[in-house]
Amino acid sequence: MFHPPLSTQVTEGRGYRRMFTQGKLTLGLFFPIEAFVGDEPTMQHQEQLARRAEELGFAALWVRDVPLRDPNFGDVGQVYDPWVYLGWMAAHTKEIALATGSIVLSLRHPLHTAKAAASVDQLSGGRLVMGVGSGDRLVEFPAFGVPFDERGDRFRENLRLMREAWSEQFPVLVSPYYGHMQGADLVPKPSGRIPILVTGHSQQSLDWIAREADGWITYPRGLAVQAQIARRWQDALANAAPGQFKPMVQSFYIDLTEDPDVPPEPIHLGFRGGRKAMLAYLEGLQQVGVNHVILNFKYGRRPADEVLEEVGEEILPLLK
Length: 320
What we know:
By secondary structure, this protein is α/β, with parallel strands linked by helices. About 35% of the residues lie in helices and about 20% in strands. The chain has an eight-stranded parallel barrel with strand order 1-2-3-4-7-8-9-12, surrounded by four helices. Strands 5-6 form a two-stranded antiparallel sheet.
């Protein structure tokens, strides 16, 4: 069977091109684009906010994959199924990248995931960028009949099966988890090679991620620590994928104050402060090698549309 090397770079997709340029930092937004208390957002006015984000020059809109509500976790993402919601947002936008952060491969049948991803990719005109992970919510695994300690092995296997289903015509797929497929084919095929970004370590080594993925999504940290993490990523790339650019992505929770001069104060996975502090942090991330930051407004105290405008008009133009 023909199977292209997983380390082939993905640069032709519209979504990837909007999000990633070596040496540059772009901004994306997590749905819901709103602040909310508790674990369930209102999901109001998201279409209008998504279109405005596109107009302002944000690079990507991100959805999360939260199959079940876990009251101990405190967040159900954008509530709706990620693939359905991406299809909905594809119809309400034209150019902005559509990204997953992240699809829990270990809990989903790889053929269903491959078909859903290829469908969104085709319907959006190649705007899909696919973040994937192995899962971390303990309550979900017994509900889906998946042993928690198998999630790393299933993650690798599902990624392999998806890529073979995308790239081959009538592939023969054999898996210890899903049986045997022969004489059938997955349709549609994606418009091009779908970029795959691995979230965290997903039970894999960093060298494996550097070799097999098209980029890496990690967690927010202070600049000094994130600089060390970025160097580790570059070292892994030099060992596993020499000469290739593979972006580094992180999330960031922001509570932007009206006063632009307010100094930063830590909040969960981010900070509260004015836009000058936010710009300084983003410029620092760009200098250490982060290529894309996903903003999350959950803990904000101002209306989301106001924050969106301020970031889009006062910060985005300064990220050169």
